[in-house]
Structure formats: C-alpha cells, structure tokens
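STRUCTURE:
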C-alpha cells in the first residue's frame, strides 16, 4: 500500500507539472494570439485612417474645383455684361444662380469629415470662399448699378479671399507633412 501511495504521489506531482505546463502553454498561445490580433487591428486602423484621409482629400478637391468653375462662369458673365453681350435681366438671373450655387458649395465644407490636423486649413478655405462670395455680391452691385464703392469693396474682399486661400494652402501643406515621392 505504501508503494501505491508513493506511486500516487509521484503521479500527482507529474500530473500537476503537466497541468502547470498546460496552463503556461495556453497562456503563451493566448498572448501570441493577442499580439497577432493587436497587430492586425493596428494595421487595419492605419488603413482605415488612410482611406478616410483620401476620401476627405477628394471631397475637398471637389469643393475647390466646383468653386473654381462657378467663379469662372460668374466672371465670364460679368465680362459679357460689361461688353454688352448680355442684358441686365439675364446678368441678374445668372448672378442670382451664382450666389445660390456658391452658398450651397460653401455649405459642403460643413459636411466634411475633417482630420484634426486639417481643421484650421479647412476653416481658412471656407473663409476664403465666403469672402469670395461677398466679393462677388459686391461685384454684382458694382456692375448693375455702376456703384464705385461696391467695386472697391469687391476688390478688397477679393484680396481678403486670396489671402485666406494662400494661408489655407500653407496650413494644408503643413498638415500633410512631408510628401513621399
């Protein structure tokens, strides 16, 4: 019987050693899995941030392109009116459409999902666009009513718009960081 007890004690010790080794093995496997999952999460998060950044960049580019096209169309209308190739009524209608279009485009800035580092640049782009719209409104007053004061305000607001735009571009480039070729 003593021998059975000794054998049982040895078996119990071996069993406990194996049981402890199993816990260690499970712990190591669990830690390994956790590391792999965490690494995958980091890569996925990085990819998602890149995708969101690209979507933001494209949306901002579309806004800027639409502003450029709308402004060019408006200035063409101004030139046509000054050259008497357009009636006052037609110019007024186009001016109203331009004003409405610019307002809608400016509102699109509010719908952007802006990465924090680009927030100040977008704010400046929006201020530039608002100043451009104000300049255009003054230009309409200037052209329709031969109002010299409105012409001066239009020029001043256009300069303000340009300065905001340059500051926005600078902030945007700074937020982008170094660009890899």
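SEQUENCE:
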């Amino acid at each position: 019987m003593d021998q059975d007890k000794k054998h049982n004690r040895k078996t119990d010790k071996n069993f406990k050693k194996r049981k402890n080794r199993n816990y260690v093995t499970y712990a190591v496997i669990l830690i390994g899995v956790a590391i792999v999952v965490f690494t995958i999460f980091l890569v996925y998060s990085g990819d998602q941030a890149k995708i969101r950044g690209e979507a933001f960049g494209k949306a901002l580019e579309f806004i800027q392109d639409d502003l450029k096209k709308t402004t060019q169309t408006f200035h063409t209308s101004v030139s046509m009116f000054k050259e008497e190739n357009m009636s006052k009524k037609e110019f007024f209608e186009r001016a109203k459409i331009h004003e409405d279009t610019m307002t809608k485009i400016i509102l699109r800035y509010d719908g952007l999902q802006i990465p924090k580092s680009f927030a100040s640049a977008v704010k400046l782009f929006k201020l530039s666009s608002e100043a451009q719209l104000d300049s255009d409104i003054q230009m309409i007053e200037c052209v329709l009513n031969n109002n010299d004061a409105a012409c001066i305000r239009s020029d001043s607001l256009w300069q303000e718009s340009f300065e905001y735009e340059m500051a926005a571009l600078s902030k945007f480039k700074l937020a982008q960081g170094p660009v890899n070729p």
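REMARK: The two ends are 82 Å apart (CA to CA).
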